[in-house]
Amino acid sequence: MANFEALFNYIQEISGKQLSDDDKHLLTVHFKPKKLRKRQYFLQEGDVCKYIGFIVKGSARTFTVDEKGHEHILKLSLENWWLADFESFYLLTPSRFNIEALEDLEVLQSTNAQIEEFLKQIPAFSAMANVISQNYTIANQNRMQAAMSFTAEERYEDLISNYPHFLQRFPQNMLASYLGLSPETLSRIRKNSFK
Amino acid sequence: MANFEALFNYIQEISGKQLSDDDKHLLTVHFKPKKLRKRQYFLQEGDVCKYIGFIVKGSARTFTVDEKGHEHILKLSLENWWLADFESFYLLTPSRFNIEALEDLEVLQSTNAQIEEFLKQIPAFSAMANVISQNYTIANQNRMQAAMSFTAEERYEDLISNYPHFLQRFPQNMLASYLGLSPETLSRIRKNSFK
DNA sequence: AAATACGCTTGATATAGGTCAACTCAAGGT
DNA sequence: ACCTTGAGTTGACCTATATCAAGCGTATTT
After folding, report:
1. Which of B1, B30, B134, B179 has the maximal Cβ count within 10 Å?
2. Reduced to 3 states, what is the DSSP secondary structure of residue B29?
3. Which pLDDT tens digit goes with each residue over A8-17?
4. Nucleotide showing the shortest C1' distance to residue A68 CA
């Protein structure tokens, strides 16, 4: 039995609206539980991101691999976040990204077509989508600004203050890549700021 | 008489839906034309971004000023784009950004409360908002990835292929700042790629 | 028309952060 | 228990890009 309560609570909390029993039934039928073990891929480069996942448990990273074989983490995701390459998911084009479980991962997943149905049929779901869209826009704006005008050290401090729990959940080399730094540089930054 | 046709066409095109005469009337009443001369500010740091503007004519830049007094352009905007610091606009918090007209600017502007009304009352408007939200999410994802994993030269080429008209409309030092580069570096990149 | 400011270029130099390599330590696999 | 693998650290060196400075040409102001 999968844990749908996490999803229900999330929708209700974000949207500020209640889900009816019918709503819950609809969600239960069309969100499919999926488990991935650490290191398994939710999405591989070149594939279409057919599913969006709601993370019930675990963590994941979204990353690209450049021509030199270097990985760049674009996103780190935890419980109660949505997991997808949105470009591929919305447009059904092949993805340039990989999404990999960093810990054993439990998601509830569904397709774009099905999400469209939820948006039409479940008011709380559609209200949630609007709030998320706002939050994403704000978060993106801030992250972009940090990436453009902050030094490595400032970006690290920004991360600490915005997502302190990331330090507990993700290994340092993953945080470095997320911040656009080499692991060595992050190690040195931490050394200096500890003094 | 302000040019509302640009706004109507935009909404209908993006949403794929028609606006009724009533819809148009409502928009006409609650979007206020505003003209700014080159160098005037649409928003100043510290102020709340009370209005969102639809650009009918002209261009603008959204930028921050860091402690060293250096400006960083986060966004360049042209006709048929929306102009706002979304964080400040949605949350009504003081903005960290400045928005300045780079050319004489004509916008149609409205408040957040009024936009909420449009979303409820005008189906084409709300459909448009959903499409824009998708487009923004995709564009942000791509821009973030470019910022994190591309070299200066790659970012410039990325800009050329995604927004070729920017080269005509914006001076080179603005493009440099938008790309997170010094004007000197962009100048040298162009010199090298021309040969 | 003169004066001024500004955008762009070019050269010389500085620096933040990357790369490479070696070492340590902890964790997982057999 | 042993071996291997991978994360983290540290040092030496390197490179992409920033900074500073000067000069040129073209708008803009007066």
Report:
1. B179
2. helix
3. 999 999 999 9
4. C19
Neighbours of A75 (CB within 10 A): 19
CA distance B103 to B63: 16
Check residues B176 and A194 and name the one with the higher pLDDT: B176
Name the residue among B130, B82, B136, B129 with its Cα closest to residue B110: B82
Read out DSSP for A59-121? Answer: -EEEEEE-TTS-EEEEEEE-TT-EES-HHHHHH-PBPS-EEEESS-EEEEEEEHHHHHHHHHH
Nearest to B138 among A90, A134, A144 (CB): A90
3-state secondary structure of A11: helix
Average pLDDT over residues B157-184: 96
Give B15-24 pLDDT, tens digit per residue.
999 999 999 9
Element spanning B177, H or E: helix B172-178
**pLDDT, averaged across chain A:** 95
- Collect all residues of chain A within an 8 Å Cβ-Cβ radius of residue B85: 141
Q: Is the CB of A180 under 7 A from strand C?
A: yes
Q: How far is A9 from chain B (nearest CA, A)?
A: 23
Q: What is the pLDDT of residue B123?
A: 97
Identify the residue whose tokens are 């603008």.
B60
Q: Taking Cα atoms as reference points, which of A27, A36, A30, A37 lies closest to residue A7?
A: A27
Strand C atom within 7 Å of B172 CB: yes
User: Please, is B85 exposed, middle or buried when counting C-beta atoms within 10 Å of its C-beta (0-12, 13-18, 19+)?
Assistant: buried
Lowest mean pLDDT among A168-172, A191-195, B65-69, B114-118: A191-195
pLDDT of residue A68: 81
Vertex B52 angle, CA B46 and B56, to 5°: 125
Q: Are A156 and A186 in contact (CB under 8 A)?
A: yes
Check residue A194 and give its pLDDT.
59
